[in-house]
Design a protein that fits this description.
Layout lengths: L1 H5 L3 H16 L5 E5 L7 E6 L10 E7 L10 E4 L29 H13 L9 H9 L1 H16 L20 E2 L21 H12 L3
Antiparallel strand pairs: 1-2, 1-5, 2-3, 3-4
Helix pairs in contact: 4-5
Length: 214
């Protein structure tokens, strides 16, 4: 996946590194940003379902797809974990103004993810991507909540069926792992309680790959 990094412009790399650092210094509740050491543009996150919503207890895997015009144009957001929600299509596509008409090039990853999590608290059925969920929410909120809670239990809490475990996605050589501030290139700060890597030479090599292209 090294070739993927080589095709990313320095402007995009700088933007993403800045956003990663900002997120890690002041982490929002219920969100874990995931960084792929082999491809910095592979932006993924884990969002927990907010309390007092049909999504409470759920662990939702999200992905932001950066287009060739990023950051001038907004990324596309997708739920990888199945969810029943008025503003999230069957394929996981997310409809939120922050990724559409309200987008600006300085919008951070942190803001995007916080807005998406807030969408689980306050859906907007008037701009629906899932018409079934939107109509059910407006006509019979109790039935909507029951359906959304069932989908959450089956797919996002490790329940029966095609549920995903809370550890998804697992960190392997080709998959992203939870971000640590001390792992970011160009950052000399030491994360409290963070012990050195077992393979310091490998870590330095990864950092150099990114900083060489800045």
């Amino acid at each position: 996946m090294e070739a993927a990094d080589e095709n990313i412009s320095p402007v995009v790399i700088n933007k993403l590194l800045k956003d990663f650092r900002e997120f890690e210094r002041d982490k929002p509740e219920g969100i874990t940003l995931i960084m792929n050491d082999e491809n910095i543009a592979d932006v993924q996150a884990i969002v927990t379902g907010p309390e007092s919503t049909p999504y409470e207890g759920g662990i939702f895997h999200l992905k932001l797809v950066l287009g060739p015009e990023f950051p001038r144009q907004a990324p596309r957001g997708f739920f990888v974990t199945k969810i029943f929600h008025p503003n999230i299509a069957a394929n996981g596509d997310i409809c939120v103004n922050t990724l559409k008409r309200d987008w600006t090039p300085d919008t951070t990853l942190k803001k995007i993810l916080m807005v998406i999590r807030c969408l689980l608290i306050e859906p907007a059925p008037d701009s629906a991507l899932n018409e079934e969920a939107a109509v059910l929410m407006q006509d019979n909120f109790a039935a909507y909540s029951k359906r959304a809670r069932l989908i959450t239990t089956v797919h996002a809490t490790g329940g029966e069926g095609t549920a995903q475990s809370p550890e998804m996605p697992s960190a392997t050589a080709n998959e992203p792992s939870p971000m640590k501030l001390g792992d970011l290139p160009g950052n000399d700060e030491e994360t409290p309680g963070h012990s050195p890597s077992k393979s310091p030479n490998k870590s330095k090599k990864k950092k150099k790959k990114l900083t060489d292209r800045l």
